[in-house]
Design brief:
49% helix, binds flavin-adenine dinucleotide, FNR_nucleotide-bd, Ferric/Cupric_Reductase, membrane, 6-stranded parallel β-sheet, elongated, Ferric reductase transmembrane component, 693 residues
Length: 693
Amino acid sequence: MRGLLTAAGLAALAVPAQALIGYGITMYDPSCGFGCYDSVSGFMLECSVMDHGPVGAHSHGAGGPTSPECRAGDDYFLTTLAYCMNTTCDASTPRWKLEKFWSEQATGSKTVAAKWSYTEALAQIKEPPTDQYGEDDHHLTRTVLLDPETVKANTLTREYFEQAETIHSQYGLILLIVGFGTPVVISMFTRLPYMSTLSDKLKPYLVYPSLIGTYHVRPLPYLLGNAATVGQSLYVIMFAALNIAMAAAGYKSVQPNAWFANEWQEVMGYFSARTGVLAFALTPLVILLSGRNNILLWATNWSHSTFMVLHRWVARIYAAQVIIHSVAELVLYIDMESYEAEFKTEYWAWGIVATVFACAMLVFSSLFFRRWSYELFLVGHIIMAVFVIVGSWYHVEFLFQRRWGYEFWLYAACAVWFFDRMIRVFRVLKNGPRRAVVTEVSEDIVRVDVKGIRWTAAPGLHTYAYFPALSPWRPWENHPFSILPTALLQSKRDASLSGAASGSDTRSTADVEKSGGVTSTSAPQRDDQALGGAPGTGITLYVRKSKGLTKLLANHNSLLTLLDGPYPDNPTDGVLKSDRLLLIAGGVGITGVLPYIARHTNVKICWSVKASAEGLVRDLEGPLSRVAEKDVRVGSRLDVAALLAEEERTGWSRVGVVVCGPGGLCDDTRALVTAKARTGPTVWELEVDAFSW
Ligand SMILES: Cc1cc2nc3c(=O)[nH]c(=O)nc-3n(C[C@H](O)[C@H](O)[C@H](O)COP(=O)(O)OP(=O)(O)OC[C@H]3O[C@@H](n4cnc5c(N)ncnc54)[C@H](O)[C@@H]3O)c2cc1C
């Protein structure tokens, strides 16, 4: 098979391809020319090397007994080829095309020109040939007729092969367009007039509920992964079905076939090529879905966490295509008895590299490894992805030397990746190096004030923070955190500064139901001027220390901080348009909901924190004191069902719920809101910000 493909490659133009097969690249046009060439190229000529060994029907001069130079100067080879083309190609094939084919393909090498043009070769034929090249002929000594059946088989072989390749490109493009276009079209659909009522009715069935019980943020048992929502699952099912259809449809066989001994081999050959092309076509989409600077995030109202779910599933489908491609090739070569020869080639080795790393990525992207060490997972993930892309590139490079455009899928994938990385760098440079004040507000929560940054005070934004001084060995490490405009905390900041200065306890008991111990904290003074920002300008992050980089965050007056952001998290339009906004937070999840208080006039905030995080409640007393309705619990849990029932009883026609906090809280709220939204009459809008994807 490789020999066949290599032969096909050698017969093509030597210049780099401009597009894909069927879209800017033709393989075997005019096919009659190739059919004739294939039928005569195996004949021995006077200048052929006689002891070279057997000649294959597909020897195109690359190592057979007859060199391109030999063909270029051989009268009878040229006249036989010209006569065949003249009698086989129909009138619809323009003369210029035949001349072009002749100048590029007649000798089997684009760089070796025949001594005559096509017209000159025809002019050399004084009498039409009457006989064929026979068994007794040691070499070609006259212009001969070529066996019409052989010419036809060779012509159709090339034609069908090219048709199959065109369909591969077509189906690859369909996958890419549908994969990319579906979120855009669905988002546009929801914005059409009169769609809001339908959308309200569909959301409790498609957008909110999880496919498996109440699991979504919480992992499935045995860390099997995270269950998708019904809507996400529908995308995945649709896309998987489309992949199966694109891999299974549109095969046409022609027998006898010059390259495949039987129909099974032929269809298997097309199928293995198809799955390879489909895998290539998915590469840019897989990378796009995972990107921070992802055009889909800008063009749709889907959240980054949804795209991360799709990234994982499309990547699994991609890996399935890769594995099927490799297995199909293996089965085919074993059947064609060419496996041993293929196994020793470089293209095969690189194909194995790409396949093995794609499989490794499947395994090492499991929730188990992501939880075990997120940073190791991330670095390993990127390195393995590089091996998959490089392996794929060399795989087709050794086979086709960039003749058929397969590499363009990979270039597109690299472009998507580099675009994301470039914008990240631009964002970090635009924000500039900053000095942050880090304040421990409770046992495991720190407040990070970064002055001088002016970002929109919109809710639902996060930024990726780098603290290179904390991790000099891994300066690239960065983590996402929700953004609070420091101005929102202003009144508390002033109070806390004076409180810290006088040593008094600034706890307010008015709004806080306390049932746990209180952690007292001593905050270092935050000096806005020294940090290069006007009072109140800047952003504040509240970070709960985890096992990695965040563990190292401690009181600091001037910590070098780089910021990549802001990025939108969940869409906020729907909830903000509600009559009533219910903000539910658990622990440090308060950072995900607090910015909403400045954007809606009818807000209730419900927040529970562990007793050990009471310092966080004190730190946020300022903004909380400005919210008329609140339920803040220290050391006890929220009763979400009761909260929702109360809103329902009040009679708001549209209630927006934003929940941010631990997985259990998020999943419970999702399930409860879904149930309420299905029964009506209240319309419920839900946004879940789970601090994970
Ligand atoms: C959109 C978003 C907003 C967030 N906002 C806040 C916030 O305001 N305050 C807060 O305390 N936490 C927030 N988090 C969670 C925070 O990003 C993680 O707790 C932090 O990255 C853990 O870092 P670590 O190295 O100390 O953790 P580790 O102990 O090494 O990892 C703990 C877990 O955190 C997650 N995680 C770690 N690194 C990343 C990363 N680079 N990207 C995504 N997930 C990661 C993984 O699920 C991992 O298993 C937010 C997360 C997201 C996705």
